[in-house]
Amino acid sequence: MLDSLQAQLEALYGIRCEVRAKDFLVDAETARALGGTGRSREELLVAEDGECLDLALYLEPALLDRVSRLEADADALLDDELPGFCEIAEGVSHFVYVAQTAGLSRRVSMLELEAQAEVDKFALCTLLRWGTHAAAWAQGLMGTLFERVRYHDSLSREERWRYGEANRLAKRYCARLLPAIRARRLEALLAELRHAYRLGAEAKLAYFAR
What we know:
The chain is mostly helical. It is built from ten helices and three strands. The protein has helices at residues 2-13, 28-33, 61-68, 74-80, 82-103, 110-128, 134-146, 157-182, 186-198, 201-209, and strands at residues 25-26, 42-49, 52-59.
């Protein structure tokens, strides 16, 4: 499933990531040893040593197994396992984005990373349901992803602010995508998503906030 999700992100944004998320999966014990918090069923671990960047991706095995069983049935996946699918998609999104920015020798902020992941989840889910009813689905998805949200009780004040701000920025940006979705203008939607994806750092956050 991770290969499929990564391929979808690469096709969505017209990019190619030479490293594969599935090859960087670690178990819970290794994730803790690498500094994982253990609070989430999904966590990207990043360590930097000079010019070397080390990545590891933790996804709860039960979550990955359960969601992967529905991979071939998009309707069942989105109807029955939307939260789980979004968690896995977020992990792959984080991995690909960090790998891409590292390849460009560009630093990425945690806020930028989280905001892009929120947009990625919205775009992936919308495109999986592309068709006659895509607009209604996307409108409902806005509520699910950006309004009916809860944050882990153990988050620090800084973390809670970052997740809330990423949610706010992504919601504003994704709302601007709805006209293209309603008009079923797939090429225009992809062009817009690819433009925003290539913006970096403060430029991206300012663009999302417009």
